[in-house]
Specification:
Length: 435
């Protein structure tokens, strides 16, 4: 059952294609063209309406569960996909037989918005947006419920190569790569969201100008990742702020696809900054992460070969400050993941660290010999400052001095934070229209 609502003379009037139905009025408050899908509307009716949409249309789903066996594809501008509430409207892809995503928006679908609904059990990624300016995910959920995690898609909300991306009030559970992922984009805000039971909670990859704040990342393998990888169209990730988040108890065994970069992340990693520059991590609560609280590393630590001559694998100008990283009741670093090479190496050398556990804060110590800074013995400007409590510990692993398999790690580790106890200027806030 479908009806269209138009705002006429200041009053919202229902112009029915069949009849106005449903227990709610999901078009209420929508200005412009609004197509309502009542409970029980068929997949073909919904897909045909969306594929034939005019720019600026809102598609409003009533309360209920809508079943899809194919991907929903969107290629128009200023389209809104709206439900009647995050737990009230469910788009169920559990029987999906075709398509790599649950919902795919591409071909310049500027102004795309998703709100007030749940995407459940897509065969691949949850909602992917490619090459759009003005992307909004608000008050929505993506969840995989299958106990067989090999059936889970990689990404929950997945905007790439986009600009002005807002993710606000989103919950994702069960992603086999990253629950909330933004890649190769510019102008990003991720806030007030929850990432759980995934390989990575929140990942900002090869992106510029991102603010990640007031989120909770818990029960993942890794909490929040800020990565830059070779071989992609956009490289040189920078100006990323991660602040006022709860990054706690990330204990889920890493179930990422073999060979993927994220599959190398040890379970129990709170924050991992890799190969980015100008990154600021502050005001976060980081606790209960078994491998470590926060680490800054070069891409070289992955030991993955690459041939991209334009790629810079080294982190620089990273400022980790004013975080709570040492909760005596829920410490970091007490149970490193021996199923991952880095975690196994740290586990083997626990006795070489203060207190007999992996420090809350780690730096791999791999440096670019051509880079200099104003800080003595800290050429990459990797700074850790005012992280509490008094029991918080630090180690420079000096992987640049490792012999084969780092068998000499116990002799090259330094735990004196003095060279890295520095401060950098605060990064600017991210702003763009529609925030």
């Amino acid at each position: 059952m479908i009806s269209r609502h138009f705002l006429i003379a200041g009053a919202l009037v229902c112009a029915s294609l069949v009849a106005c139905g449903g227990s709610t009025n999901p078009c209420e408050g929508v200005t412009g063209t609004c197509t309502e899908f009542a409970a029980g509307t068929s997949e073909s009716t919904i897909s045909n309406a969306i594929s034939g949409a005019k720019d600026g249309t809102t598609f409003a789903f009533d309360e209920g569960t809508f079943t899809f066996t194919n991907e929903i594809s969107i290629a128009n501008k200023n389209i809104t996909i709206k439900g009647s509430g995050q737990d009230a409207t469910i788009l169920d892809f559990g029987a999906q037989a075709a398509g790599a995503e649950g919902i795919l928006a591409q071909d310049g679908s500027d102004g795309i918005a998703f709100t007030a609904l749940t995407v459940r059990d897509p065969a691949g990624n949850g909602v992917k947006v490619v090459g759009s300016t003005g992307v909004k995910f608000t008050n929505m959920k993506v969840v995989w419920t299958n106990q067989d995690k090999t059936k889970h898609g990689a990404y929950g909300v997945y905007p790439v190569q986009s600009k002005q991306v807002l993710i606000d009030g989103v919950t994702v559970e069960g992603a086999a790569d990253a629950a909330i992922y933004v890649g190769q984009s510019d102008g990003i805000v991720v806030r007030n969201s929850t990432a759980r039971l995934s390989v990575a909670g929140i990942e900002i990859e090869n992106s510029f100008n991102a603010d990640v704040y007031n989120n909770t990342s818990t029960l993942n393998a890794g909490g929040i990742l800020v990565f830059d990888l070779p071989g992609l169209q956009q490289k040189g990730g920078h100006n990323v702020r991660v602040y006022n988040n709860k990054i706690i108890n990330n204990t889920t065994t890493n179930f990422g696809a073999a060979g993927s970069t994220v599959s190398l992340v040890p379970t129990g990693t709170g924050v991992l900054v890799m190969a980015n520059h100008d990154v600021e991590v502050f005001g976060n609560t980081i606790s209960g992460n078994g491998t470590t609280g926060v680490a800054v590393v070069s891409f070289l630590v992955t030991q993955i070969s690459y041939s991209d001559a334009t790629y810079n694998p080294f982190p620089s100008k990273v400022h980790i400050h004013d975080n709570v990283v040492a909760d005596p009741a829920s410490p970091n670093g007490t149970n490193p993941d021996i199923g991952r090479q880095l975690g196994l190496l740290l586990y083997a050398h626990k006795s070489d660290f203060p207190g007999g556990h992996v420090p809350e804060m780690l730096y791999d110590g791999i440096v670019d010999g051509t880079t200099t800074s104003s800080f003595p013995n800290n050429s990459m400007s990797i700074c850790f400052k005012n992280n509490t409590a008094s029991t918080a510990t630090f180690a420079n692993l000096h992987f640049d001095q490792c012999n084969t398999n780092c068998a000499n790690l116990g002799t090259i580790i330094t735990t004196d934070i003095t060279p890295n106890a520095c401060s950098l200027d605060a990064l600017p806030a991210v702003t763009f229209p529609g925030l």
